[in-house]
Amino acid sequence: MSETPPNTLQYRFDGPEDAPVLILGPSLGTTWHMWDRQIPELTKQWRVFRFDLPGHGGAPAHPAASVADLATRLLATLEGLGVHRFGYAGCALGGAVGIELALRHPERLASLALIAASPRFGTADEFRQRGVIVRTNGLDPIARSAPERWFTGGFAAAQPAITEWAVQMVRTTDPGCYIAACEALASFDVRAGLGSVGVPTLVLVGSEDQVTGPAEARTLVAGIPDARLAVVPGASHLVPVEQPAAVTDLLVRHFSTAWQPLPENATGHVVLPAAAPAAPVAVAPQPAPVAAIAPAAAPPQTQGAPDTYDAGIKVRREVLGDAHVDRILEQTDAFSEDFQELVTRYAWGEVWDRPGLDRRTRSCVTITALVAGGHLDELAVHTRAALRNGLTPDEIKEVLLQAAVYCGVPAASRAFRVAQQVVREETTPPE
To answer: Is 109 in contact with 80 (CB distance < 8 Å)?
Structure first.
């Protein structure tokens, strides 16, 4: 166990002190206990290092802004312990940390296993919407729905104690850290960089995973040069818990046979030789070959656009959501494209991206201005944006009450009707 300053992570070691280090990274909403049933076997060969995400499992609530931030904190923790090279297995968000390490710090990794992982987890809108629900309702709705996301129906019904453990694990997570982790996943997209992952990689997925399933696993295998696929039958998203023996066996076989040695004359950056094809390790027959995965689409480029365009489209998507911005861009034609470029460059790239006010404050100002102008369609859009930017429904209500005093009661009355509908839509947990 550890004392945890803000730039490091809560951790524990198991296994012999002189053995190679194998790191196990957790999924969002879980703790290091999700790996408990792998520990007896793995510690026969490795010194196993497990960590908790910020605000999970009683870890100090120091929210991490990105997957890269989590990887940096993990490396800082390891540096303090004198661990410089290791194998790494991560589940879901833990897998994202593993990909980040492979891309940014390949000299540290001997081998990699990605479990229930993806180069892009759903859409940014989905995770920011989850953050809105948690900010408004707390973690209880997410906790109650966790078993259906994590386990097959048969397992959940047959294992009520594990199902309740999963619910309580999520329920006791710090909400602010959970929301920050959702934001980190919303901005995570490494599809274009998978070809640069240079360590031997096992991609492991449950056959019934509806969150990051076999399709996402095949995307990883298609993009990573030295990757093999293992599909575990009868398992959903939290496959190390649902099928512990199968996962343990796959991890032992992978890390026993695909541990990349560090060259003696290494300077801190490893040039990896081309790896010979390895025998498949899947517990189920390999799926049929899939077509090459297309690289991630680049943001729209406008001829002669200044540098603020790229910043503007990024901020516009973060605030308004990909779905809304995609819809606007799809409707853009030769007549309106100059106007859309103006909005992206000036409103989003120059004003919204200025450091003088945070986004919460800018949302307050924007809502007030839209009430004053009677722009109810835009008010609906920016009420959604305000929720994504961190305002609670109660804070939006206070902004509208303030606007009623200075913009007029009739204008505020119309605004309340619009905002009430948006808040109801955005903050009601899914059935």
So the answer is: no
Burial 51-81 (b: 16+ CB within 10 A, else e): bbbbbbbebbbbbbebbbbbbbbbbebbeee
- Which DSSP category does 307 fall into? T
- Is the predicted pLDDT of residue 289 greater than 70, yes or no? no
Closest to 76 (Cα-Cα) out of 54, 58, 44: 54
Are 182 and 133 spatial neighbours (Cβ–Cβ below 8 Å)?
no
Predicted TM-score (pTM) of the model is 0.79
- Mean pLDDT on 272-290: 37
Strand arrangement of the beta sheet that strand 11-14 belongs to: 11-14, 47-51, 21-25, 86-91, 109-115, 201-206, 227-232
Kind and range of the H or E run holding 417: helix 409-427
The tokens describing 320, both together, are 């308004």
Asked if residue 179 lies in contact with residue 148, where contact means CB atoms within 8 angstroms, the answer is no
Separation between Cα atoms, residue 203 and residue 21, nearest integer Å: 20
